Amino acid sequence: MTAIDDVITALAGQSYVCGRALGTVAFLALRLGRPLFLEGEAGTGKTEIAKALAAALGRRLIRLQCYEGLDAAQAVYEWNFAAQMVAIRSAEATGGTDASHLRDTLFTSDFLIERPLLQAMRPQPGGAPVLLIDEVDRTDEPFEAFLLEALSDFQVTIPELGTIRAPEPPIVILTSNRTREVHDALKRRCLYHWVDYPRFDRELEILQARAPEASARLSREVVAFVQRLRTEDLFKKPGVAETIDWAKCLLALDVLTLSPEVIADTLGAVLKYQDDIARLQGSEAKRILDEARATLEPAG
Ligand SMILES: Nc1ncnc2c1ncn2[C@@H]1O[C@H](COP(=O)(O)OP(=O)(O)OP(=O)(O)O)[C@@H](O)[C@H]1O
Ligand SMILES: [Mg+2]
């Protein structure tokens, strides 16, 4: 058994199905201490692998959810102005402390709000945490440049407190949906992996791991249908998350096998745009179901 297999097995223990290629970069990221950059389609397990890895390693998961306008105050730290004001007011009321003493106490860790990047630099009981920087393509370029800095030396300087350095660098996973191209400089610092939609067998394995209560027959039909659906010209193709959701909906409805009627009634679990749903009206759902069934035939 190689160390790559160990990573794949550990992830399987968290119901995460990891192929060889992803297992290899994950192993290398851990071994070399390099950030792992995962780019790919929506709902293909990019965020989930960070959760699974943290759970498998017994590490804390710290998540920085990126969005447009995210800045250092939200990502690293911020002073708790409200609490500082209260402290000032109560000092004034009691009339005790002089101004310089007050200044010393106001800028201490008691009044510091630690955000994910700073939290990730603090020692954790189980070892360095897993830092998930999720959907980095949603931030803007200045923040990306800032991240590049933070990821290169894992230290933060707070003027009033000094420099805080991670005793052991966190395990960093960045994800992107590629709504825009992330800068080369950031990518170069990381190990890169494109997470594609899984092939039939792997998707079936994922579905069985996440919805084991679904029968083999229904699972195979659902996966075959979704796989077939992805080859259609859709505005938004369904991810693995949709496959799992759909199977759970069908289970809740006690559906044993797919039919055009069942598909029409539950399509909202798979397709999230009205135009895509409209495309499957009429005979289209039946055509895709027939084609999906045809791909299942050889294996029974
Ligand atoms: N390889 C996998 N093994 C187990 N479960 C998986 C796998 N891939 C996806 N899933 C399931 O799909 C769901 C969605 O995955 P996840 O949230 O990681 O997608 P994502 O790639 O981060 O999508 P988005 O880009 O939309 O954020 C997970 O909650 C998990 O249940
Ligand atoms: Mg995600």
UniProtKB/TrEMBL annotation:
MF terms in GO: ATP binding; ATP hydrolysis activity
Domain AAA+ ATPase: residue ranges: 32-210
InterPro entries: AAA+_ATPase, ATPase_dyneun-rel_AAA, CbbQ/NirQ/NorQ/GpvN, P-loop_NTPase
A Pfam cross-reference name: AAA_5
SMART domains: AAA
Protein name, as recorded: MoxR family ATPase
